[in-house]
Amino acid sequence: MKGRTLKEYIAEQMKDPEFKKAWDDLDPEFQVLKAMIKAREKTGVSQAELARRVGTRQSVISRLERGGFSKATLETIKKVADALDMTVEIKLRHKRA
Predict the structure, then answer these.
(1) DSSP 84
(2) Cβ pair 67, 29 in contact under 8 A
(3) Cβ of 40: how many Cβ atoms within 10 Å?
(4) How far is residue 30's CA from residue 70's CA, in Å, rounded to a whole number?
(5) CA 65, CA 32: separation in Å to the nearest integer?
(6) CA dist list (Å): 71 to 4, 19, 29, 57, 62
(7) Which residue, 8, 61, 62, 66, is most buried by CB atoms nearer than 10 A?
(8) Mean pLDDT throughout 70-78?
(9) Quick one: pLDDT at residue 52?
């Protein structure tokens, strides 16, 4: 029996309406985490260097990027942005139908 990839597993789970709703509800958090990781990598800053700039430990940045802090505060996000010489931009959009 062939194993499934994570992508295949998620596609299968998305058929369950409760799973899909829970997944979609987390999308804003995923988008913020992806944006923070992309910004850090684009600027060539390591997790350790970002942690030094923010005033925390590398393990905290690692957990943050993995989603270990399910609800990162806006203050934390602003600290990360500032440490990367960036600003935070928040947009509100109509929900997709």
Answers:
(1) T
(2) yes
(3) 20
(4) 10
(5) 9
(6) 30, 19, 8, 18, 15
(7) 61
(8) 82
(9) 97
